[in-house]
Amino acid sequence: MSLLQQFVLFVASFVANWFSALSGGGAGLIQFPMLIFLGLPFGIALATHKVASVALGLGATVRHLRESALERRFSLIILASGLPGVVLGANTILRVPERGAIIVLGLLTMGLGIYSVLKPKLGMEYAPRNREGRALLGGMLGLFVIGFLNGSITSGTGLFLTMWLIHRFGLDYKRAVAYTLVLCGIFWNGTGAIVLGLIGQIAWGWMPALLAGSLLGGYVGTHFAIKKGNVWIKRSFEVVTILIGLKLILA
Fold this sequence. Notes:
Layout: H1 3-23, H2 31-37, H3 42-64, H4 72-93, H5 99-118, H6 133-152, H7 157-167, H8 173-199, H9 207-228, H10 230-250
Helix pairs in contact: 1-9, 1-10, 2-3, 3-8, 3-9, 4-6, 4-8, 5-10, 6-7, 6-8, 7-8
């Protein structure tokens, strides 16, 4: 890549991951299409974006560690439920036509934003629930499905995890975004990147700009979200989900 292309990629990656860290997902809205626009085939762009997304999780983790630790048991539940779905999704996506699934994903993503707008108090307070028995099993099934989407279709699936943690498990936006960025950003995306790298290709020459933009954007966006609090995060989530939904439907 030329220096100009590397710079464009860095700026796009920084902006995408800044928004993603602020709203709890959505880096693929800018970063993934940019890779395709600059010349990467779909499969290679997907695997490359997955690797870069891990840097977003690392940047967010560095900032979140200065605030408070995530609950160990709940973190293990998210990982144990979602990672099998990620592996299955990553093994599926390169073998099936993606257009129909992307349209459905766009409609669902827009639905997340509209649902949040219609529920003004949603995610404003921390009220943990559904952590035991059948209620927990239902929540884990939802995490598996979201993991499958994360492994297969990359644009905006972290937003589904954020909303599921709020709606099903009673987290507020600030905590839900922290879990999404750390667990989905590092472990889910890292697993997806490994699987896609094994069955496909990764454009390693594009990584310096992508990793720098993802890491820096993730840190700065997380810092901004922590300082602004739940109301700001909720509004950012709503804007990003509706924009991503429109982009997926109209692309």
